[in-house]
Amino acid sequence: MEETNQTLVKEFILLSMTYSPFFQTVLFIVFLILYMFTLLGNICILLVVIMDRHLHTPMYILLGNLSFFDIVYSSTTVPKMMSGLMIKESKISVQNCIVQIFFFHFFGCTEAMLLTTMSYDRYVAICIPLRYNIIMAKSACFRLISGCWVLSVFYSLTHTILTSKLPFCRVDRINHFFCDIKPLLMLACADASLNENLVTLITGFLAVSTSSLIFLSYVFIGIHLVKVRSAHERRKAFSTCTSHLTVVFLFYGPLITRFLRPATNDSLEQDRQSALLYTTVTPVLNPLIYALRNQEVKRSLKAIFHGKKAIRNQL
């Protein structure tokens, strides 16, 4: 056995989006505003779903879960990205880097599966409305949500454990704004081909299978709506479906292209650009898309707001 005198890296330095002081300040303010709106919008939807008993249905329980994961998904990366704009060198320990990778992939995988479950919920509600309360009973809904959580834990642990076994030496600069698998594997001083193949295969299978199930659900929905004669029923179905489809496209578009590309310097540059979409832009747009297009959510928000206002006036 050959012994090598290699110094293992104990912490990494994350890349800043820009090193111009002016643009660092501008980007920090922009990301701070987007992050605050992400928290505000998703917390509002989460509170509405919890407080309004009329929204204790599978569709809104799933929406509440999606809002929760938008909050934690964004919070996993955005604060670290913002700190990198304000300090000279944004450092993170190897252990914290691995932890960030786990939660980033856990929350991202769960969100993908929730979007798939939401498409199934819409299929049952539109195509099999008479059996909706039986198929999508609250117990069944919670089992589906629990299944999303459990599968996501296994998915994330697979990548996290294998990555944590790799030694990192010499180079300590991660070519990204936060810890992620692809740029981290490029720093390993051991063969990381197994990790790279698993990232492509497992993530590719997850992306293809979930997006195929969503596509299949909407194929059946489309076939059913062609047979529906009522224009009102078609408009109601299109209203809920277009909101969900918009969120799906915003989430899956950059994510699929990101993970299915090989890890090269050019692809990592594109990864950093797409990362800004699904970590900062998509989470802030999701509550806007659902709140603005959903009459029940808007009515509940108004009722809660006016109810609190009435209480304050009585006091």
From TrEMBL:
<dbReference type="InterPro" id="IPR000276">
    <property type="entry name" value="GPCR_Rhodpsn"/>
</dbReference>
<feature type="transmembrane region" description="Helical">
    <location>
        <begin position="22"/>
        <end position="48"/>
    </location>
</feature>
<keyword id="KW-0812">Transmembrane</keyword>
<dbReference type="Pfam" id="PF13853">
    <property type="entry name" value="7tm_4"/>
</dbReference>
<keyword id="KW-0675">Receptor</keyword>
<keyword id="KW-0472">Membrane</keyword>
<dbReference type="InterPro" id="IPR000725">
    <property type="entry name" value="Olfact_rcpt"/>
</dbReference>
<keyword id="KW-0716">Sensory transduction</keyword>
<feature type="transmembrane region" description="Helical">
    <location>
        <begin position="60"/>
        <end position="78"/>
    </location>
</feature>
<protein>
    <recommendedName>
        <fullName>Olfactory receptor</fullName>
    </recommendedName>
</protein>
<feature type="transmembrane region" description="Helical">
    <location>
        <begin position="201"/>
        <end position="225"/>
    </location>
</feature>
<keyword id="KW-0297">G-protein coupled receptor</keyword>
<feature type="transmembrane region" description="Helical">
    <location>
        <begin position="275"/>
        <end position="292"/>
    </location>
</feature>
<feature type="transmembrane region" description="Helical">
    <location>
        <begin position="237"/>
        <end position="255"/>
    </location>
</feature>
<keyword id="KW-0807">Transducer</keyword>
<dbReference type="GO" id="GO:0004984">
    <property type="term" value="F:olfactory receptor activity"/>
</dbReference>
<feature type="transmembrane region" description="Helical">
    <location>
        <begin position="98"/>
        <end position="120"/>
    </location>
</feature>
<keyword id="KW-0552">Olfaction</keyword>
<dbReference type="InterPro" id="IPR050516">
    <property type="entry name" value="Olfactory_GPCR"/>
</dbReference>
<dbReference type="InterPro" id="IPR017452">
    <property type="entry name" value="GPCR_Rhodpsn_7TM"/>
</dbReference>
<comment type="similarity">
    <text>Belongs to the G-protein coupled receptor 1 family.</text>
</comment>
<keyword id="KW-1003">Cell membrane</keyword>
<dbReference type="GO" id="GO:0005549">
    <property type="term" value="F:odorant binding"/>
</dbReference>
<dbReference type="GO" id="GO:0004930">
    <property type="term" value="F:G protein-coupled receptor activity"/>
</dbReference>
<dbReference type="GO" id="GO:0005886">
    <property type="term" value="C:plasma membrane"/>
</dbReference>
<feature type="transmembrane region" description="Helical">
    <location>
        <begin position="140"/>
        <end position="158"/>
    </location>
</feature>
<feature type="domain" description="G-protein coupled receptors family 1 profile">
    <location>
        <begin position="41"/>
        <end position="290"/>
    </location>
</feature>
<keyword id="KW-1133">Transmembrane helix</keyword>
